[in-house]
Amino acid sequence: MRIRTKLIAIIASFHLLYAFTMKQANDFNNVEWLIGTWENKTSAGSIYETWRKISENELSGKSYMVKGSDTLDFENVRLIQEQGRLFYIPTVKDQNNGFPVRFAAKTISAIQMVFENPKHDFPQIISYTKISPDSLVAEISGVRNGKERKQAFSMKRIQLNRIK
Length: 164
What we know:
By secondary structure, the protein is an alpha+beta fold.
């Protein structure tokens, strides 16, 4: 009877490990819809985000604004799966002494990504919601100076980047 119990425990352990591994792979697969170039038109100019796949567990993103013939870089982002979790890691010019800030995945689905860092000054939450294959809403939110703040950016896909 003891051998049977041990065998069941071993099989259950393998099953849990397999399920965990598949969930982690599915989390990263669920963010690949972000790949491409997205545009948010404003009265001050167009804001762009360009995402490309770097490896099987990393996307690289860049946020910038084009105003006339000038391009202003805002941030570089790594969306990476490591340590069994998905992280959104932006580096923003002139913020955090130029160091990246790590936001851990809170929700990952086929249509939404929510990342959180409650210790960051602002934002504490960064999310992307897929509206359609060529439309998304990016949102930053949290508390700033004791007040709840939220800013949404509606974006349209203008280019699909398939190249690594």
